[in-house]
Amino acid sequence: MRKSDHDYAKARHLRRQQTLPEGLVWRKLRGRRTGLKSRRQHPVGHFVLDFYCAQAKLGIEIDGKAHDMGKRSEIDCARDENSCELGLKIIRFSAPAVLQNPTAVAETILAVCKQRID
C-alpha cells in the first residue's frame, strides 16, 4: 500500500510528540550500535507504528493508558491484523513496564528481532 504525504506528516508529528516511555526505548534502540536499524513512528498501511525494524519485519508498540479506553482495543486489533496481512509481527509493551525497566524492554525487542532474522 502506497504511503501518502499525510502518513509521513503524521509520523513526523508523532516523532516530535514522543512520550517518555517511547523516548526511553528509543535511546536504547537508536543508532547502529545494536546491529539493527530501527525506525520510530514509522507509517505502515493506514497506521503509524511506534517502532519498526525492517530487517526483522517487527513492529513495536508502547501502549499507554489511552489503549485501555473506549474502542482503542478494537483499533489495536485491527492494526495488528493489518500488519499481520503485510507479513509483520507486532509486539506490545505497556508504558508502565517500560518506565519500570526500559533496558529489559529494549533487550526483549532486540532478542525478538534477532530471532526473526535468524
UniProtKB/TrEMBL annotation:
Residues 9-113 form the DUF559 domain. Pfam families: DUF559. This is DUF559 domain-containing protein. The lineage of its organism: Bacteria, Pseudomonadati, Pseudomonadota, Alphaproteobacteria, Sphingomonadales.
